[in-house]
Amino acid sequence: MSSAAQSVKWIGRTGGCQCGAVRYRLAAEPLSLYACHCRHCQKQSSSAFGMSLWMLLEKVEFTHGQPATWQERGDSGAIKVCAFCDQCGSRIYHGGEDPNAPVSLKPGTLDDTSVLRPIAHIWTRRAQPWLDLAASGIPCYEGEPESDEILLQLWRDSHPGTGGRR
Ligand SMILES: [Zn+2]
Ligand SMILES: [Zn+2]
Question: In 3D, which of 36, 30, 34 has the Cα closest to residue 15?
Answer without folding.
Answer: 30
